[in-house]
Description:
Shape: globular
Strand order of the largest sheet: 1-8-7-6-5-4-3-2
Distance between the termini: 13 Å
Radius of gyration: 16 Å
Function: Catalyzes the reversible epimerization of D-ribulose 5-phosphate to D-xylulose 5-phosphate.
Strand content: 15-25%
Low-confidence stretches: none
CATH class: Alpha Beta
Cofactor: a divalent metal cation; Zn(2+); Fe(2+); Mn(2+)
Bound molecules: ribulose-5-phosphate, fe (ii) ion
Keywords: Carbohydrate metabolism, Isomerase, Metal-binding
Largest sheet: 8 strands, parallel
EC number: 5.1.3.1
Catalytic activity: D-ribulose 5-phosphate = D-xylulose 5-phosphate
Order of helices and strands: EHEHEHEHEEHEHEHH
Helix content: 25-40%
Number of strands: 8
Amino acid sequence: MKHLIAPSLLAADFSNLSSEVDMINKSEADWFHLDIMDGVFVPNISFGIPVLESIKDKCKKPMDVHLMIVDPDRYIKAFKNAGADIYNVHYEACTHLHRTVQSIHKEGMKAGVTLNPHTPVAQLEEIITDLDLVLLMSVNPGFGGQKFIENTYPKIERLKELILKKNSSALIEVDGGVDNTNARKLLDCGADVLVAGSYVFKSKNPVQTISLLKEI
Ligand SMILES: O=C(CO)[C@H](O)[C@H](O)COP(=O)(O)O
Ligand SMILES: [Fe+2]
């Protein structure tokens, strides 16, 4: 499978959101990556359901929603109604992860589980066959523009091994500090989806930057 690119709107110009969405629609990007932060699970607040609702009809590609919030179970239906296609919850925020994954699927969304940099992939051993996606954080969640954590490479390899061992079809997504210096190696280690925020939106030509990531 050709790898997928999911630009993170966290780094977009919010005063120009509509044209940023159009830019992604026109580009070779595969998904919209939407970072939801509640100021509790992570020390930052981003945007929420009303913003997604206002762009959902404009977004012509799947909406990959990354929930950096406590108790993500409470908002499964609300985000589904706001246009989410993929509902990515943090392992660290879920007490009854299996039930959460069931609820996400019941709403007709793909279920993703995100791991913070310190959380071992082995924590997913008993649930990996139920997942559509595992998102590995390659920075500590909460902010864009942070430095990529090098331990992500062997972590991808360990996750890939687990996925193969369990015959799971889960995709591996990597999020945080992704750019042209690490993308090739991330794909070689087994990543299927690359999230990129600052690298795309702070570049001179974001459409071209997305193509560059896509053609790696
Ligand atoms: O989840 C996130 C932060 O918690 C963002 O998706 C991530 O940081 C992308 O931004 P950048 O590419 O600038 O690191
Ligand atoms: Fe994210």
